[in-house]
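Q: what does this look like with NAP bound?
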Amino acid sequence: MLHLASRKVGSGLLSRIRANVFENVICRKISTSSRKQAVMPAWVIDRYGNNSMLRFTKNSMFPIIYYPNEVMIKVHASSLNPIDISMRNGYGAAALKMKRDPLHIKAAGSEFPLILGRDVSGVVMETGLDVSYFKPGDEVWAAVPPWKQGTLAEFVVASANEVAHKPKALSHSQAAALPYVALTTWSALVNNGGLKKDNCKGKRVLIFGGSGGIGTFAIQLLKAWGAHVTTTCSENAFSFLKDLGVDHVINYKAQSLEKQLKDLETFDFILDNVGGQTEGWALSLLKPWSGATFITLVTPFMINTDRLGIANGIAKSGITLGSKILKHLSQGIHYRWAIFTPSGPTLDKVTELVDEGKIRPVVEQVFSFSEVPKAFLKMEGGHARGKTVIDRSKECL
Ligand SMILES: NC(=O)c1ccc[n+]([C@@H]2O[C@H](COP(=O)([O-])OP(=O)(O)OC[C@H]3O[C@@H](n4cnc5c(N)ncnc54)[C@H](OP(=O)(O)O)[C@@H]3O)[C@@H](O)[C@H]2O)c1
């Protein structure tokens, strides 16, 4: 409790008011340390498109602590997620612009040059005036939300409540593999799905897509909490996932996946990391009228706002989600969408699981900072077996 209480940092309206009051003070404080170095190395995009949009610059704008609850982190390692590829292509641009600029004050394209990358493991350089939980020199990890400048840079600024102390046993390169997938999985299984340490024992859980970043974290979390876990994956991922503790693997490329799964005992919970047509039949794999839940991470929300604009996109998503919830509820199944939710306190819980040896990062490949475009191409090629990490300490551009 003490731990959480001491996390208290200013947030919301109060924080904004304080930000206005303290802005000059803080900016003056930062500028003293950054005047000599008002720019930093970063990978940026200047417009949306393919991998050739990625541009390395030594002159990216140095980030500023704008609110008193913010923390500046020197990035030691980062990792890539499918959202980095999607954002490079322009996915979510409308909704993210709305979040960055709710009053529509800024011109179109004001997000550029945009720094991608959500995960960070690094060291605290500066803290805002309200932050007491972190101090310069602390080793921390975080997943920075997609409406903020990202982590493929020398420094990043995050809210203190998005940041946590990094597990001591992990190197920066290992730690950077976890935050975004851990927080998304937590949002799906715990916040939306109601699963927790005390109610998972013996529950039959099916994960569509076990071999990527989300799948490898979800398997470990559910096994740590005593669930029986079945997952779908390619055959060449079988032994790798068995090593992570999964109970049953199903090759989604062999004969009918639906038939293979229907031959099994029904499930209490399904996490869908794949999307597509699966939803059309997968809910029948759940035990009806027993609190069984289907959660998907592949939602049309951003696609709708990109295509239809904010108001119509939100309305269409709301109608789609509402009608699916009602339809499945009438058949005794809970249906949910889940999204990544930044949270330092949740990362503290993941740290406990890492320290207890129940969760480990699954790093497939490590790239140096100069190899960021290569890392994007690797991610874009699919077939992940864990995470793609960018280690800044491997070389300095
Ligand atoms: N809603 C959110 O906020 C949120 C947040 C994070 C991620 N996501 C979504 O969740 C999904 C998973 O993310 P991730 O980080 O785990 O991606 P990832 O690391 O790229 O992994 C994707 C994995 O899925 C496997 N796969 C592909 N098609 C499959 C199929 N039909 N059946 C079973 N496995 C299949 C791939 O291996 P093979 O192709 O070799 O089989 C790969 O291992 C992505 O669609 C991502 O966009 C959503």
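The pocket of NAP is lined by residues 81-82, 181, 184, 208-209, 211-215, 232-234, 252, 273-274, 297-299, 339-340, 382-384 (CB under 6 Å). The mean pLDDT is 92.
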